[in-house]
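Internal tracking record. Fields below are filled automatically when a chain is submitted to the structure queue. Please do not edit lines marked as system-generated. If the sequence contains nonstandard residues, flag them in the REMARKS field before resubmitting.
Queue: standard
Priority: normal
Entity type: single polypeptide chain
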Amino acid sequence: MRFRRISLTIGITLCALAALMLLPALIDLVDANQDWQVFLVSSMLTFFIGGLFVFSGIDLESSEIELKEGFVLTTLSWLVTAGFSALPFVGLGLGYTDAYFEAMSGLTTTGSTVLSGLDNLPRGILLWRSLLQGLGGIGIVVTAIVMLPFLRVGGMQLFHTESSDRSEKILPRSAQLIVFIVKIYVSLIVLCTLTFGLLGMTAFDAICHALTTVSTGGFSTHDESFGFYKSAPLEWACIAFMVLGALPFVVLIKAVNGRSSEVWRDTQVRGFVGFLAGVSVLLAIWLAETSEIEFWDALLLASFNVVSITTTTGFANIDYMEWGPFAIGLIFLLTFVGGCAGSTSGGIKTYRFQVAGLLIKGHFLSLMSPHRISPLRYNRRRLPEDVPFSVIAFLAVYMATVAFFTLLLAGLGIDLITCLSAAATAVGNVGPGLGDTIGPAGNFASLPLAAKWALSAAMLLGRLELFTVLVLMRPEFWRD
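SYSTEM-GENERATED OUTPUT FOLLOWS
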């Protein structure tokens, strides 16, 4: 394990983060807001520490990162980047616990917040929150596509791309894939910004919301989130871009390269889009029947919130806690679903439910026809033998993790509904939960400090696909 190479990469990341801090500093300077000094000092400190990491990590012998180093680097990058991303929040008056929670929530694109009065906050800090989610989104996609398939846990080995192999090196061809990912990601953000601007948002709001929509993060510049705009066209546009952000980026790359038929041929995409449509219509019918809402208005409300929660974005256009027990229960269950593998979304992911369904189907077929041999197939190819076990193991660990954090929060004296929904939304990187404290109309500021640290850890575990940490904890992983 060459820690100098890890140090060098983390140092470069911190230097890039320092440069990013200059953008909100510039916004505050233009607005004649003295907070620009906070961002400038934070940038200088981050750059100084990053520079030390770079100089201590220079290794002229090898420039290629090995697989084990990549896993360690991924974990440390989230922790260190969140620590330095919290500095501007500290400079603006938050305690370090709240600042770290906000930074981790941004980088993991969870969208939980301890801030209130967003409409009156300086534009610099609002932009910084959005930039963190934009940065976190691209990091999540790269990790999911380039790193996690090599880990061969949770079923991610299904998603080895044409440019990857099973060697112990992260090959140069992975760098080419990353370039494609960045191009698609930036293009979606630019297109989303233009769409939001044309539909009535200010230029600043359009940029901020585009960053947090495509990254499926959910930070807004207003306390009312998307409900502030009261615009059906904006909400439908947001739905479209949340769905795009939750689709596999490898499939989007194929579509851009002239293989558009691959999008709908993908089993995961069909299942994900079909699920969103079915649940949205179901909830819309229920809302229309139980309240004085016209069906088409109910369909917009239902679609926006179903897509927002399922894609783990966390935007809200209404307080769904007022919809009654059925809707609340349905929305809580949606926090576990997530989007597609290789996207910016969190949660369990659609393909794992599909593989679990194939296993159940195969089990019943074997009961009815014990001598029948039916190999499991997914996405037009046979499932590798280790995938079914990996998926079931992941589901078990995922639910156990939610249960652990639920009990941990309950031990801090928090009510059960808040504990359960906070744990589920943190591990799933969803954002808002249930109840008055962390529901769509509340925020996480009133939680105990220990609860915020616990939820920060849960957010990180969710983004590392849980098993990454478990693998790093195994002694054999560190053996040469």
